[in-house]
């Protein structure tokens, strides 16, 4: 049996399976929580500063006091990797997760009376099996009927746990294809974001993705922006619709674990051209070079897929 990972939980280092919250925790009852998910490359957390900056912004907006400074959360995150790295399979990497709830509180109106937050910072070995094959085959994106939250209701720039719209979107997408990747539109019919990932298209050599108003500002989105700039590939951040996606030359999704994956079908419509396309190939090669890991090779090897 594999040795248990250990996690930081409310001031203690304990086996992850012993981290338990009360049924009265507001994170459980109300989704009153914010979180981040990071990953390592060769045991080094990728852009922890970016993740923690976003976490601190989410905490500020939701007015949750974690009882820890940003530096303390950084130190604990690094310690998670240090304490658990020996349990990671050779050649693999880790995810690291920071989760902060407001703490105990039965009623919605009790928010100001919750004084003791629940803080979890832990890790796990990465699981590449869901997506390793998609670097060559491409993902199937399905645009769900369920919409993303409007910024006037619950700003998507906050990385929160109130995610029932993501659950419903996933159910709708998997009605079409059990392995589909759901993408939501905003209330105006513009393509917004996926359930934990950003969505992109390429047309005539230009990368396009949604602006900041109705999406989470992804850490991988920031990385791709920098890579594209270094490669001389233009990027536009603007509203675009299903028409634009269906007529794209390439499409891809980006997220912490997989970095970026080519898309081969949109709503069962195959995209023209090869999978992956030339822009996706350039971005993946540049990302691999930046982090010193063959992103595709690592994922396929760890998932037990031959070259």
Descriptive terms for the model:
307 residues, alpha+beta, D-amino Acid Aminotransferase, Chain A, domain 1, D-amino Acid Aminotransferase, Chain A, domain 2, 2 domains, nine-stranded mixed sheet, six-stranded antiparallel sheet, 9 helices
Average pLDDT rating: 96
What is the helix/strand order?
EEHEEHHEEHEHEEEEHEHEEEHH
Specify Rg, calculated over alpha carbons: 20 Å
Name given to the CATH homologous superfamily of the largest domain: D-amino Acid Aminotransferase, subunit A, domain 2
Q: Quote the distance from N terminus to C terminus.
A: 29 Å
The biggest beta sheet, please?
Answer: 9 strands, mixed
What's the CATH class of the largest domain, please? Answer: Alpha Beta
Structure description:
The chain has 307 residues and is α+β, with helices and mostly antiparallel strands. The chain folds into 2 domains: 6-125, 2-Layer Sandwich (D-amino Acid Aminotransferase, Chain A, domain 1); 134-302, Alpha-Beta Barrel (D-amino Acid Aminotransferase, Chain A, domain 2), CATH 3.20.10. The protein has 9 helices and 15 strands. The protein has helices at residues 26-30, 48-62, 70-84, 134-137, 164-176, 219-231, 242-246, 278-291, 295-302; strands spanning 6-9, 12-15, 33-41, 44-45, 94-101, 118-125, 139-147, 181-185, 191-194, 198-203, 206-209, 235-237, 250-255, 259-266, 269-270. The strands form 2 sheets. Strands 7, 8, 9, 10, 11, 12, 13, 14 and 15 form a 9-stranded mixed beta sheet that branches. Strands 2-1-6-5-3-4 form a 6-stranded antiparallel beta sheet. Strand 11, helix 6 (219-231) and strand 12 form a beta-alpha-beta unit. The longest helix is centred in the first third of the chain and has 15 residues, at 48-62. The two termini are 29 Å apart.
């Amino acid at each position: 049996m594999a040795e248990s990972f250990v996690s930081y939980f409310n001031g203690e280092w304990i086996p992850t399976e012993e981290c338990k919250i009360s049924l009265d925790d507001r994170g459980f009852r109300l989704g009153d929580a914010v979180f981040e998910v990071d990953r390592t490359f060769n045991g080094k957390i990728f852009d922890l500063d970016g993740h923690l900056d976003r976490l601190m912004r989410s905490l500020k907006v939701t007015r949750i006091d974690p009882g820890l400074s940003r530096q303390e959360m950084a130190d604990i995150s690094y310690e998670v990797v240090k304490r658990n790295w020996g349990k990671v399979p050779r050649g693999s990497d880790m995810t690291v997760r920071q989760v902060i709830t407001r703490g105990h509180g039965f009623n919605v109106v009790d928010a100001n009376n919750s004084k003791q937050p629940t803080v979890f910072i832990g890790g796990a070995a990465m699981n590449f099996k869901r997506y390793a094959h998609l670097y060559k085959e491409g993902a199937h994106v399905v645009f769900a009927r369920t919409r993303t939250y409007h910024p006037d209701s619950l700003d998507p720039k906050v990385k929160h746990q109130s995610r029932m719209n993501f659950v419903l979107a996933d159910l709708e997408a998997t009605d079409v294809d059990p392995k589909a990747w759901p993408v939501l539109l905003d209330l105006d019919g513009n393509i917004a974001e996926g359930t934990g990932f950003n969505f992109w298209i390429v047309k005539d050599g230009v990368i396009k993705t949604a602006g900041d108003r109705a999406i989470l500002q992804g850490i991988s989105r920031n990385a791709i922006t920098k890579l594209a700039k270094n490669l001389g590939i233009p990027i536009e951040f603007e509203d675009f619709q299903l028409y634009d996606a269906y007529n794209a030359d390439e499409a891809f999704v980006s997220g912490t674990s997989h970095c970026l994956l080519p898309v081969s079908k949109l709503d069962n419509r195959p995209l023209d051209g090869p999978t992956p396309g030339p822009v996706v190939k350039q971005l993946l090669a540049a990302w691999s070079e930046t982090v010193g890991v063959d992103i595709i090779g690592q994922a396929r090897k760890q998932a037990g897929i031959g070259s």
